[in-house]
């Protein structure tokens, strides 16, 4: 599972038409809690960007340590250079791991390109279909075909789809998995 994290400049000074970043962030702890646990634990430590010309930094990391279905809660602990820290709001992500086939789609909703990650434990033929909210097949095998075991990253251009709800269906020799996604404009 891939998490994308956007951190905007919280500590900025506005001066006329220019803004200046006050460099106080040292690192971020990405903390995770599984639904049945009572405490958060640090999942990853990420050093803060030192580029003061940017107001928005995009951090990402692969979160392959998720091994069971359920609801995972995430928060970011921002640690400043002086040792003080603050927490972000908590977000929840429902993870469904079905057998030996996994599927992650993002961003959802999407207004352009839908990123798709397919996890397979053995080589298999991959059949891909996209259905609209009425059940009509609108795409068949946009990136289907034979795949080796592993994680495969694909992109689906949703600009040709009308806004609405869609169902992405992935079928391999190990099973079938579905994910809903929304197209917006």
Short description:
With 185 residues, this protein is an all-beta fold.
Q: Name the poorly predicted regions.
A: 6-22
Number of DSSP E strands: 17
Reported CATH architecture of the largest domain:
Sandwich
Count of domain modules: 2
Q: Which descriptors would you attach to this protein?
A:
185 residues; Immunoglobulin-like; 2 domains; 5-stranded antiparallel sheet; 0% helix
Describe this structure in words.
It is a single chain. The protein is mostly beta strands. It folds into two domains: 2-94, Immunoglobulin-like, CATH 2.60.40; 98-183, Macroglobulin (MG2) domain (Immunoglobulin-like). It is built from no helices and 17 strands. The protein has strands at residues 2-8, 12-15, 18-21, 25-34, 41-47, 56-62, 70-80, 85-87, 91-95, 101-106, 113-120, 124-132, 137-140, 145-147, 150-157, 164-172, 175-183. Strands 4, 5, 7, 8 and 9 form a five-stranded antiparallel beta sheet that branches. A hairpin with a 2-residue loop joins β2 (12-15) and β3 (18-21).
Please describe the topology of this protein:
Blueprint: E1 2-8, E2 12-15, E3 18-21, E4 25-34, E5 41-47, E6 56-62, E7 70-80, E8 85-87, E9 91-95, E10 101-106, E11 113-120, E12 124-132, E13 137-140, E14 145-147, E15 150-157, E16 164-172, E17 175-183
Antiparallel strand pairs: 1-6, 2-3, 4-5, 4-7, 7-8, 7-9, 10-11, 11-15, 12-13, 12-14, 12-16, 16-17
